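Fold Annotation — chain and its backbone

Encoding — discrete vocabulary of local shapes
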Amino acid sequence: MKKQRVFFMNAAILTVSSVIMRLCNIWFRVFITGKIGASGMGLYQLIFSVFILGITVCTSGIGFAVTRLVAEGRGTRSAVRHCLTVALTLSFVAMAVLFFFSDYIALKIIGSAAAATPLRILAPGLPFIAACACLKGYFLAIRNTVVPVCGEMLEQFFTIGIAFFLFTRMALPMDALMLASTIGEIVSFVYIALLYLIYIHHNALSNQKSAGIFQSILHIAAPVLCGSFLRSLLSSTENILIPRGLRKHGAGEQGALAQYGEMQGMVMPILFFPSAFLSALSLLLIPEMAEANAGGQKETIQKSATRAIRFTLIFSFLVTSVLIVFADDLGMAFYHNAEVGNILRVMAPIIPLMYLDSVVDGMLKGLDQQLYSLKYNFTDSFMRVILISTTIPLFGIKAYITILFLSEIYNASLSINRLLKVTSLEVDVISWILSPAVAAALLYYVLILAKKILCFGI
């Protein structure tokens, strides 16, 4: 009973913080769009698509490895120390590549010389991000969500506050944004590192050297790292190909960046915002599943998986109805852009699979199935790159939206099938699919009626 209370308390903390941060992120993006425009937002997204590749190299799998090893009781301080060594080594390599090859990346890959300086400003933040990933993984493993949450909130608030300050003092808004981001990452690291040192000073943490700790880290982190890196590489390639394809379709230089900025910088944040209520569930399921799996508690795994799937589908179906009804209002309220609302309405029906895929991915990682996630993610991203390079020049942004639908159906189907297989679960069509669908349909008609009453006074 106590364990359940801790789980729900941590879930509540993560959910509230995630909602606050995503609201701040959307509001900040609205502010940024007003400063740099839709085309500037497109360039901003392209710069970060390259930077995320560097983040992936030094964080993917490492924080997850800490969480798994600590949750399984494998040499607490030793696990953190070894993971930090690996993460920092990778981060310094990634930082050097990003810093010294920024001109080449900007001109030959992104296609804009203006991206070089922002990349150099972002590069020094990688070691701090890598160290934070390890320490956050430790705190999540011991069911302490307050420290990681406060670290993320500090980072975001400092980033936003410093960006406001620098906008009035720097000639280039893009450089101000990137410098604010790097300072925010340093602040987050300092806070989490201090809390970790205080915690290990006041608590007798195990410093026992678990046999084969490095091999365990490689077993857990390497598949996730390889999969995430390959997928991020393909994702970055995909993001670079989209504006190029739109230009070939006839959108022009600024038009292509504007369409890309609307899709990635405006629509996607709104589409993913409600998933903040599920992100806590996805994160917390990793140590829960790892612990149950290590103890051979099959029934516990089945119950946890069933509850997670049912809750995710009910929530996501209802969110779909809300976004379909209010798509135009959201597009105009946030960005004063009717096209954002149109795309949002088209994308809304894929939300149930999108959200469920994220939660299932967390469960698979906790069940030591990361190799399968690697395979699914890689093949999915590879097919997306091929489809984007061949169809967007012919059909424009409509082709990209279609590709997103096909990609999510493919990836989610494979992941869900794998989870059902390893947990021996059977699909409950009524409670998983029919009930949420009926509830969503009823909500849709209620919202339509309520909207008409409010608009026309009848």
Summary: The chain has a mean pLDDT of 84.
